[in-house]
Amino acid sequence: MERLSLNQMTTKHWSLAEAVDGCVRAGLGSIGLWREPVAETGLAAAAKLVADAGLRVSSLCRGGFLTAEEPGARAEALADNRRAIDEAAALGAPCLVMVVGGLPAGSKDLPGARARVLDALGELAPYAGERGVRLALEPLHPMYCADRAVLSTLRQALDWAERFPAGQVGVVVDTFHLWWDPEAIGQIARAGDRIASYQVCDFLTPLPADVLLGRGMMGEGHVDFRPFTEAVLAAGYTGDIEVELFNAEVWATPGDEVLATMKQRYLELVV
Amino acid sequence: MERLSLNQMTTKHWSLAEAVDGCVRAGLGSIGLWREPVAETGLAAAAKLVADAGLRVSSLCRGGFLTAEEPGARAEALADNRRAIDEAAALGAPCLVMVVGGLPAGSKDLPGARARVLDALGELAPYAGERGVRLALEPLHPMYCADRAVLSTLRQALDWAERFPAGQVGVVVDTFHLWWDPEAIGQIARAGDRIASYQVCDFLTPLPADVLLGRGMMGEGHVDFRPFTEAVLAAGYTGDIEVELFNAEVWATPGDEVLATMKQRYLELVV
């Protein structure tokens, strides 16, 4: 239970202070933060809140969106990512989760978009490394390739990460995004110490009308979690195990209930 | 234009006879058939209709659904696939498109489901080969892994197909399912004469509430078709190029209009 982390998006209706209190009440060791609620609280106040509660920060969501072609938009994206890295450092987050971005509006040039992400990582990786923050490349489910992330598989994420020192660029293993991939388990073994974050979440069918909200509580969908956990641990991962759901029904449930279910399912299905 | 084929699902509102007439009016050389409308017309009558019109049959949809665990359900699936192979042979279809099936209800054993598909292919492949029909394994977009097909990438399809003689088992290259895959173009080169069918279709966002209906007319979505066509032709594919859309708006459009748009987009974007 000490490694279980609440990604604060799972209890979206809670403020940061409420989420921190909820984690403490539930006996969790860690919390995954998002930039927007941290900004609402104020960066220094947020860092103090979490530290005073004795919680670790498992990750900060999110940087990325690095596919813009237009020089001004690209410069703004790089500047925003540097700010996100600074925030991760101030919060003591070991990694910044990177959702790399989809195709620019109207573009069909997928290889071009991918090349621009790699190019931007070349600028951001040393900046992150110098501040003790790892960029955690998150392969997203292929259904988000057009509008969210042109990075879709763990193999592809590792091909990119391995161009940089392991201390600068790692990967996220998220069961929702990877569960279908026949290569996932093998690529987790390849990843070794590149695994910067392990996130658990179930894949629901039918997908809801907003496909971003198909991220369900463990046990509600199709994912067999234990092979993923075993592979991640066998690869040497010693970090936290984060539960990140985007789910209208979960968001309508009182936070303490969500955490109680999450703990139960974690013990039953994940570890 | 001689290689352009109408998959009859694109004009779902047309009967088989209407679709055949529409193809002839539009100057197409080929049609892709589905079992249900063929059965409505009668197998022999359908074969005669198409042959009398001077059209080739580019493919028959579909066999598959081979993941059942229960022996009775499994035997029925095998028997149904043998009937589908017989139908493809009677229609002169060079291949039977195989949608392999998703997880059985309540099961989370993805490796088990995949193993059962492979096992079933071992029974069906020689039967198909003896009748001059190729089983065309179709990797489906990963968003359908749970409920439609535990076969998700071209690499995985080729890993399976290569266990059998090339005359017995090939693969389908469908741009809707594969466009996101950073390995797709490379795997098409690997596929060579394993390519049994090439289907073009665009990927729309936002996905409609029924994600099966996100298959759009070329030019309406995110797919860059030419690199796929070039790779398929460079791999040595000499068969037809089939347009298969599942799309409520297209289905509400008069068939002759759909074919006119399809021809125009084919010339502008595909070849």
UniProtKB/TrEMBL annotation, chains A, B:
UniProt-listed InterPro entries: IolE/XylAMocC-like, Xyl_isomerase-like_sf, Xyl_isomerase-like_TIM-brl
GO terms for MF: isomerase activity
SUPFAM superfamilies: Xylose isomerase-like
Pfam families for this protein: AP_endonuc_2 (PF01261)
The keyword Isomerase belongs to this UniProt entry's keyword annotation: yes
Keyword Isomerase in record: yes
Ranges where the Xylose isomerase-like TIM barrel domain occurs: 23-253
Keywords carried by this UniProt record: Isomerase
Name recorded for this polypeptide: Sugar phosphate isomerase/epimerase
The species this protein was found in: Amycolatopsis cynarae
Lineage of the organism: Bacteria, Bacillati, Actinomycetota, Actinomycetes, Pseudonocardiales
